[in-house]
Amino acid sequence: MKQKNWWRYIVSVPIIFLYLAPFFILLTVAFKHPHDASSRWVMPGYLYLEHFNTALESGRILQGMRDSFIITLLTVVTIVIIGSMAAYPLARRISKLNKFVRILVMGVMMIPPLSIIVPLYRVMLIFDAINTYQGVVFLLLTYQLPLAIFIFTNFIRSLTPALDEAAAIDGCDLLRTFFSIILPQLKPVIATVTILTGVTAWNDYQFSRFFLQSNRIMSVTQAVSGFFAQVNSNIGAAAASAAIGVLPIVIIFLFLQKYFIKGMVDSAVK
Length: 270
What we know:
Elements: H1 6-30, H2 50-57, H3 61-92, H4 96-108, H5 117-126, H6 133-157, H7 162-169, H8 174-182, H9 187-202, H10 206-211, H11 220-225, H12 235-267
Helix pairs in contact: 1-12, 2-12, 3-6, 3-9, 4-6, 6-9, 6-12, 7-8, 9-12
C-alpha cells in the first residue's frame, strides 16, 4: 500500500513548501536588522528583537489582538449557535421551502462583499454601528453564517433520524432534542466551523478598514497595516506584528486540528 502511494509524498512536498515559505520569510524579515541586505531566504545568524519591541510598544498590536479577540469570539459563538439551530430543521425536514431556503443561503456566499460596500455603509450609519464591535460582528455574520449553515446541515443529515425518534418517544420537544441529543454530536463540525469562521474574522481587513475608522477599536490587520506608508514603511516591524498576531490562530488550530479534519470529512458525506 505504501508503494502505491509514493506519488502522494512527492506531490505534498511542493505544496508544503508553498505554505511554509511565507512564514519562513516572515520570520526572516522580523529577526533581521533593517540595514541587512542579505537575501530574505536566509535566516540571519543573529536575532534582532528591536522590531518586536517596536510592534509591542508603538505598533498597538496588543490592542489589535484584544479587539480582534472580542470580535472573533462574538462572531464564532453567534455563528455556532444560530448556524447549528438553523441547520437542524433544514437537515431533518425535506421540503421545497427548505430547499429554497438552502439555495438562498448559499446564494449569499456568491456576493462579493466589496461590491455592496456602499449600501452596507449606509445601513451601518442608520443603525449607528460605525466604530463598534457589534457593527463588524454583524457584517461578519452576514457572510460567514451561510457557510456554517451549509456545513452543519450536511453533518446533521449524516446523523441517523433514530436519535430524534428515540428522543420523541422519551417526550422531548424539538428544542430539548436539539440541545440534549443533536448538539453533543456536533463537536467535530463545531471545531471545523470555529476554525473557518475564526480565522476569517481574525484576518478580516476589508470590513475593519471601512467600518473601524477610529483608534478606539482596531483589528490585528489594521495594526499591521499601520507600519506601511506611501513614503516610509517599516517592513521589519510589520513582519514582527504579523508574527505576533498569527500566534493565537496557530495555537488554536494545533489544538483543534483533529476535530477540524474529522468535521470536514463528515460534513462532506452527503
